[in-house]
Design a protein that fits this description.
single chain; 156 residues; alpha+beta; two-stranded antiparallel ribbon; 5 helices; 29% helix
Length: 156
């Protein structure tokens, strides 16, 4: 089911790369940037996570918490985060609960693999409402981060 602007973001609780449970509800009162990505250690995903780390000062200024979400195991995400010096939480949606709730489950990916996340961005405002979304048609496309920044700027 596709997420529409103005609706409450689906609740989730996922394990992060440090093996802590993280819920969207934990960030009530802050804007949240959710970055759904197909798989750690792949080219475009690495570029996206690293470029987001490079822009963390802007997101912090916008009172926004950044969360990366993929179906990778938390152990793999921990190594990915360490090797690439990613400075925000990476959450494991191994059971595909969040990608299904947000409507970003990629039915068929490369090499016949199924069930990874589509590349997608959601901005959730301080009240838990979806203020911006972009779901990429292809996993090889990067999100339009200028639009993400504009959406976050409008919330402050």
């Amino acid at each position: 089911m596709a997420i529409t602007l103005g609706q409450k973001a689906p609740a989730f609780t996922l394990v992060d790369s440090d093996k802590n449970m993280v819920s969207l509800e934990n960030f009530k009162g802050k804007n949240v940037l959710l970055l759904f990505f197909p798989a750690a250690f792949t080219g475009v995903c690495t570029k996206e996570m690293c470029s987001t780390t490079d822009e963390l000062a802007f997101y912090n200024k916008m009172n926004a918490e950044v969360l990366g979400i993929s179906v990778d195991l938390p152990f793999s995400l921990g190594k990915f985060k360490e090797l690439n010096k990613i400075e925000f939480p990476l959450l494991s949606d191994f059971n595909k609960e969040a990608i299904n709730a947000f409507g970003v489950n990629e039915e068929s990916w490369i090499l016949g693999l199924k069930g990874v996340s589509k590349r997608a961005v959601f901005v959730v405002d301080k009240d838990g409402t979806v203020a911006y979304s972009q779901v990429m048609a292809s996993a090889g496309e990067m999100p339009d981060f200028d639009m993400v920044k504009e959406a976050l700027s409008k919330l402050n």
